[in-house]
Amino acid sequence: MTQRSWGRFAWHYVEMVIAMFAGVLVLGFLLDAVGLGLTYERDPEAAYLLMAFDMSVGMAAWMRFRGHGWAGTLEMCAAMFVPVVPLFPLLWLGVIDGMGLMMAAHVAMFPLMLLVMLRRRDEYAHAH
Q: Residue 115 sits in which domain range?
């Protein structure tokens, strides 16, 4: 890839992160407004899965708007959920608490997103 392509690739990563946070803010606000918000102290598994869903909605909406296909979109959404596979058992065993779960999942999520993007680097480096 050219330097310009790598720049597009990096900007696309930033766009994905912004879209994730937008999804969490908008959907989280709506759920809180109707009394359906969850906490990591009381319901850590459900709180994380709901947050991953909210992030996925924001990111998927942006990806589809930018012209990405469903395969790449669903792979990127999977990167929101995959980190909890090894973390839920640690939560259940008392090794980590709800906030530890959320933090560890986020630490894993961002490199997983990058791996998904690298797998389809030509798609993400292309100007949409």
A: 3-125
pTM over 0.85: yes
Amino acid at 20: M
Distance (Å, rounded) from C-alpha 30 to C-alpha 127?
A: 33
Q: 63 in helix, strand or coil?
A: helix
Cβ within 8 Å of residue 30, ≥6 positions away: none
pLDDT tens string 30-67? 988 898 878 899 999 999 999 999 999 999 999 999 99
CA–CA separation, 57 vs 61, rounded Å?
6
Strand, helix or coil for residue 120: coil
Q: Which of 86, 111, 104 is nearest to 40 (CA)?
A: 104
Q: How many domains does the chain have?
A: 1
In the chain, % helix, strand, coil (3-state, to 5) comes to 80, 0, 20
CA dihedral 95, 81, 21, 24 (to 10 degrees): -90
Amino acid identity, position 122: D
Q: Where are the beta strands (DSSP E) in 1-128?
A: none
> What does DSSP assign to residue 42?
T
